[in-house]
Design a protein that fits this description.
It is a single chain. It contains 11 helices and no strands. It has 233 residues and is mainly α. The protein has one domain. Helix 1 crosses helix 2. The longest helix is centred in the last third of the chain and has 28 residues. The protein is globular. Bound molecules: zinc ion (ZN) (2 copies). One zinc ion (ZN) binds next to helix 2.
Length: 233
């Protein structure tokens, strides 16, 4: 069994995954993107609250020389927007990363190279994505869950493609048709948005049409969340 990285959730089950997905599907956008983002924020909370002195966390911050750019920005947002997290917690972790960077720079010229390991939060996101995709693919075969999925915003294209090989063959046809329907509707909305924006057309835009350009951005690329989505404290 794979080693669990410090700061991650307890071992999840299919039943729990169904509850979390049901919740995510009531919200805007791709539920899988949302589940991954929740895991990323929870990891940041756990690390900053409880694990800033944890040797394993410090070792991973030293190996990776801190977080990648995107995850560093997320950590900054969490600290800036949630007053309960102290900046000193970030300082404690980064003291290790900065000291390690200095050590590596003191090597002989020919030994200075970029050998940072994967950002620990990228690893959490990747593992969460793999695990949740597997759960979601299984859950789609349940008629009640399927109905909830159909009524939700559905997946982004990258997640549709990543779970496709895992979806049971008996639900593949309707899974694909559902996604094709969403894309066809999006295409119609994008065209209507352009047509109705013309100066000689005096027809009101529907909400779906006026926001279709935003949907196209997340539908094809995956969701960006511009501020923390989890509440705590
Ligand atoms: Zn997604
Ligand atoms: Zn990262």
């Amino acid at each position: 069994m794979k080693k669990k990285r410090r700061g991650q959730d307890k071992e999840p089950t299919l039943g729990l995954a169904a509850v979390y997905f049901a919740r995510a599907m009531q919200k805007h956008g791709c539920p899988l993107c949302r589940r991954i983002r929740e895991a990323e924020e929870r990891w940041i909370w756990n690390v900053l609250y409880e694990l800033t002195g944890d040797p394993e966390v410090h070792r991973s911050f030293a190996d990776s020389l801190g977080l990648c750019r995107g995850h560093a920005a997320l950590m900054a947002q969490v600290v800036e927007e949630r007053e309960l997290v102290s900046p000193a917690s970030v300082a404690r972790l980064y003291e290790t990363a900065v000291a390690e960077a200095l050590t590596r720079l003191s090597r002989p010229h020919e030994k200075i190279r970029d050998e940072r390991e994967e950002c620990p939060l990228c690893e959490v996101a990747r593992e969460t994505g793999e695990r949740e995709s597997w759960f979601l693919a299984k859950l789609l075969a349940d008629p009640e869950f399927w109905a909830a999925y159909e009524g939700s915003d559905g997946l982004c294209l990258p997640h549709f493609l990543s779970i496709w090989p895992k979806v049971p063959s008996r639900v593949r046809a309707k899974f694909r048709e559902d996604f094709q329907r969403r894309l066809s509707q999006l295409l119609r909305n994008l065209r209507e948005l352009q047509r109705k924006e013309r100066f000689d057309v005096d027809e009101p835009l529907t909400l779906e049409e006026s926001t279709s350009w935003q949907e196209a951005l997340w539908r094809l690329a995956g969701m960006s969340f511009f501020s923390p989505i989890l509440k705590r404290g």
